[in-house]
Amino acid sequence: MAANAEWAKAGEKRVLRYLSVLIFLISVRELRAQTQAEASPAAPVVQRHRKVVVSIPHRKLALIEDGQVKKVYPVAVGAQHSPTPAGTFAVKTRLAEPTYYHPGKVIPAGADNPLGTRWIGLSTKGYGIHGTNVESSVGKAASHGCIRMHRSDIEELFAEVEIGDEVEIRDQADSEVAEIFGDTPAAEKETVSPAIEVAVSQ
């Protein structure tokens, strides 16, 4: 009986010793993995260079990322008596379901809003890229200076751009513009839409 008790105690000691060694090895393994993870350099954050280029002669807008054209959209540009300003600007504001403001008139978000469902305000006051409630004007020189887009297009572009992104508006079809958009199309007859864009409060 005493022999059996001693054998049981010896067995327990062996099991405890085995468990202690096992726990020690697991701890060493976890510590080594943690040390390696801390020593490994963190994956670099990829900063993408993104810009928007608008060609007034082509009446098109291109989203360019890391020097590659990601997508080209048709747009409406300013009519002859209210041209779209050329130059290099930046995205200043991004508003979903914007309110339209005009002296004596305020139009909330909805089907009658001349700004459509999205407003991308530029760093030149009063101008932006936005939707429209006159879809037929897209592709024409029909706005009062802003860049109009179809609803699905402006919502897609809105999701891509961020505050500070560069926006180039070009009024000459030079070689760089031609490389992006192709040959300049024949001029279309100027049309003016009854809708007047006015910058939302920035």
Tally of helical runs? 3
* Envelope shape: elongated
| Oligomeric organization of the protein chains | single chain
List SSEs in N-to-C order: HEEEEEEEEEEEHEH
Indicate the CATH architecture of the largest domain: Beta Barrel
Query: Can you tell me the number of structural domains?
Result: 2
CATH third-tier fold name of the largest domain: L,D-transpeptidase catalytic domain-like
Estimate the helix proportion, in percent. Answer: 25-40%
Poorly predicted ranges (pLDDT <50, ≥5 residues)? 188-196
Order of neighbouring strands in the sheet with most strands: 3-2-1-12-5-8-9-11
Rg from alpha-carbon coordinates: 31 Å
- Mean of the pLDDT scores? 83
User: CATH homologous superfamily of the largest domain - what is it?
Assistant: L,D-transpeptidase catalytic domain-like
Strand content: 25-35%
Total E-strand runs: 12
Q: N-to-C terminal Cα separation, in Å?
A: 92 Å
Largest sheet: 8 strands, mixed
In terms of topology, how is this protein built?
Blueprint lengths: L1 H38 L10 E6 L4 E6 L2 E7 L2 E2 L8 E10 L3 E3 L2 E3 L10 E5 L5 E3 L10 E3 L3 E2 L2 H10 L5 E5 L4 H7 L21
